[in-house]
Amino acid sequence: MRRFFTLLIIFFCINTLDAQSGKKDYLLTIKTRFGEMHSVLSDLTPKHKANFIKLVEDKFYNGLLFHRIIEGFMIQAGDPASKYAKKGEFLGNGDADYRIPAEINQTLFHKRGVIAAAREQNPEKESSGYHFYIVQGTVWDDKTLAEQMARTPLRKFSDSQIQTYKTLGGSPHLDGNYTVFGQVIDNLWVVDSVARQKRDLNNRPLEDIAMKISCKK
Q: Residue 215: what are its φ and ψ, rounded to 5°?
């Protein structure tokens, strides 16, 4: 019953926003063996949103693994080679033959639960076509947060963002360097469950954690 009312609230909030904007949006469901979580994507990052929705509708992510996890930081997925990977095999090099232009927006920041695009090093900060990560993050105090923000000296943090990092948590040193394009809106304990699993020296979970992503409009 509680799950029913949670989903009802989610759909009500999304439909209310849709009515105000005159359009319908997508609700994504990310399922793992630990449970499922729901997420929405941002209209401020239209290229990333369109790319991710297409991949989900094509069922690209179904059966792929969370191949890189770091507790207190993030969980990452998107390598197509992970679907049939052997135990202990290094993952992370498989990717699309295209990149997505950066859509870095200062109002979208790396607080706990955001979905962002991974990327290789490139001066344009263009994103991987496939790889994404979900931020678990850490709650920071004044001293440690100042140290994190100093790692991106050109990035200006608002008062509300600073307060969020000190209460909800996140990974502030990533701001301005990677495109945030979505947000998990419930069941963040699933992220915690994935992140705390035992991993090898390459940060791959010792026991596979597969996913399935679907969307409703």
A: -140, 150
149 vs 144: CA distance, rounded Å: 9
Amino acid in the structure at residue 141:
D
> Per residue in 118-147, pLDDT tens?
999 999 999 999 999 999 999 999 999 999
Extract the tokens encoding 91. Answer: 């993952």
Q: Give Cα separations from 36 to 7, 31, 61, 171, 189 (angstroms).
A: 12, 4, 14, 23, 10
Amino acid (one-letter) located at 136:
Q
Mean pLDDT of 159-186: 97
Among the listed residues 89, 84, 72, 32, the one whose alpha carbon sits nearest the alpha carbon of residue 204 = 89
pLDDT tens digit string along 41-64?
999 999 999 999 999 999 999 999
d(CA 77, CA 210): 9
H/E segment holding residue 183: strand 180-184
pTM to 2 decimal places: 0.89
Q: In this structure, are residues 189 and 35 in contact, taking their beta carbons and an 8 Å threshold?
A: yes
